[in-house]
Structures are given as structure tokens and as C-alpha cells.
Structure of Histidinol dehydrogenase:
Amino acid sequence: MSELNIQRLDAGAPDFEASLQRLLAWESVSDSGVNAIVDEILARVRSQGDAAVVEYSNRFDRLNVRAMAELELSRERLQQALDGLPQAQRNALEEAAKRVRDYHERQKSDSWSYTEADGTMLGQKVTPMDRVGIYVPGGKASYPSSVLMNALPAKVAGVGEIIMVVPTPDGELNELVLAAAALAGVDRVFCIGGAQAVAALAYGTATVPRVDKIVGPGNIFVATAKRAVFGVVGIDMIAGPSEILVLCDGSTDPDWIAMDLFSQAEHDEDAQSILVSPDSDYLDRVEQSMLRLLPTMERREIIEVSLRNRAALIHVENMVQAVEVANRIAPEHLELAVANPEALVPDIRHAGAIFMGHYTAEALGDYCAGPNHVLPTSGTARFSSPLGVYDFQKRSSLIQFSAEGASRLGSVASVLARGESLTAHARSAEYRIKQD
């Protein structure tokens, strides 16, 4: 192959915004056909419970089980997986878990209150959720890192019970995933996946307990199901394909940048890899590195499709314009592969995670840096944040008026309530007003 056919865009061109919009276009949840299938599965699981989950698991994952009990793994089985790991894998998993836990410990927020001069107390009570469900993909690829990233923040938050669901096509269990569940303190594991697993977590069955929130990535059926049950339960986000945006001043080895772009492209054919630089010669050198390195990649076919359909090399006038492009894209992963990344950070407004400097490969964030790798995609970093401890906590307002405070503020409430023609509100407040 003599060329990659990666799109070239120029941020100074009149049609740049239109071209960029076409490049970024992505519909994260599916067509009417997928919706119809998911709606049917949700309805059947809601009405038939375990029986429907068993039937769908047998059909979609090619299993042969008769009861939900056959689809649950014991804690002893999880510990067995952890104990049976090769030492190098166990060491790596434990190091990653420790770093993720330590980082998220710093996110914990505590209840607080203050008392006003008249004795009125106001505050906020922070409470962990009772039970959450984490979805871990199975099948083509298995992700022990997803177990750590979803379960450990919940554990740090103080969630009472963590339920994990993971599909096991053809009954194949991934020992590393099970080991991660043991290490992260997952309470129960069910070998179910797809929309039926989301339904079981959302509505509950005789065997699978109903949860308060569902987190974790999945395929188009899982994403569609999560959107459909939102409101019955909380969800983390509707995730699109993985994406990386690299801003480079030309000072990083082109091979490093090429491999950073590959690291996202290899996820799947819809993943997106974009490089932005003011140095057009450097863009050429990175493209040549990609051309030379691609034949060495095990997932070459997937990478090639991803690069052809969704990648881009964007030329900008300077790094100021590069930052403007980054804020416009609001990427999941943003690499600042520049000599002085600290100078750019204050101007970055929208990014899921920011990787700073030549040595900070995005892949480190996927596994063991410490911050969460569950990040907003498809431009949603404009209003969303990485998964964290705060996603597994609720906040309740605390309000306790003293007699003096109730009397003084009762007059304020009365005036506002009568202005809204809500006289019961007004009179309720007026009863507490001291009479001279």
C-alpha cells in the first residue's frame, strides 16, 4: 500500500467548519430496527424476568443453560481467577488497581453544613448509592481495565453492593476480567450481556437485583438499552467510538505520534484519530511513519478502515489556532505533544482527559495512570466529565430553621408565594411568623 488516504484539512480554508462537521458526524444510538429489538427485549425481561434473560442468553451467546443460577459466578470463583494469574499479570493488575483507587480517593466529597447568626442551619448530606451495576464487554475483546475503572470509584464512594454483568459467548470466561472483579471488590457477577443484561439490572429479576445506576460501555444494543431505561435507573453516559486528538508542535518523534493514533484506531472501525499541527512537513512525516508501521500491526485491517473513514491530519496556522480546533472538537482524549504543554492547558476548555508532554501516551491513561478512562465522547466533553466517585454519590440538601429564622424568612416566602398565586405556600410560611 503506497498511501493511507487520510483526510487532509486546513483550518484556514473557507469550508473548514463544514468539512470538520462531516468528519465528526456520528449517530451514537441506532436506527429503528435496533430500537425495536431492544424494546422487545426490555419488555420481555420486565414481564418474564429470569426466564427471558436465560432464553436471550442462550440465543445470543450460544449457551445451553436452564436457570439463572448457572449464570452467576461465586466470589470463590473470582478469587480463584485472581490466584491463578501469572505473577506478572497479577502484579500489573494490582499496580493499576492501586493507582486507580488512590486517584479516586482524592475525589471523595463529605457532607457539610453551616449555621447562620439566628441559629438556622443549612448544608448538604452526601450519600453513596445503595447498589450499582457495571457492564463489562465480552466476546471479541475483554477489558479487565474497564472492571477497575467502573468498580473502584463505586467502591471508594461507599456503594453498598456492586453487581457486574459480562457476556460470555460460547461460555468462554476471561480469567483476567474475573480477577479484576475480585481485586476491585465486586459483590456479584452474572454471565449475561446485551440489552437483556441492562434490562435485568434496571428492572430486577428474581435473581438479579435491581440497581440504582448502570455504568460501563457496550455495543449498539447495550447503548440503546441504556438510553431506554434512563429514568428508571441512572446511567453514566451514551458512549460513542473511542477518539484521540493530538496537538503537536513538531517536536515529538513521528513514530510515537503514529502509534498514538493507531492506539485509538485499533479499537474498532468507527474509532477516530486526528492530528493537528502548524508544521505541514511534520504532518507528512507522521503520515510516512504510519504507512511504514501499519504492516506491523496485528489489527491492521481495523486500523486501516478507521484511518480511511474517520481520521484526519489538520494543518493550522499556529498553536493558538490548534487549541481553538481542540475546543471545537471537545475530544475524549487530548494529547498535548508539545515542548511546553503547561502553557496550553489554561486555554483548553473541553476535553475528557488531557495528556501532557512527549512521554504521556494516551495508552497509559487507559490502564494504569490513575484517572478514569471512562470519558465523554462525540463532543460531549463540552458538558460532561470523566466517570468518578461523584457519579456514585447523591447529595441531599439540609435545611433547619430556627424560630427566629423561620419568622424572618417566612415574610420573604409569603410575598413570593402570593406573587405566584400559591396561597397555601404563603400561609404555610406565615404560620411560622412571630406575632408582635
Summary: The chain is about 45% helix and 15% strand. Residues 39 and 97 are 37 Å apart (CA to CA). The two ends are 92 Å apart (CA to CA).
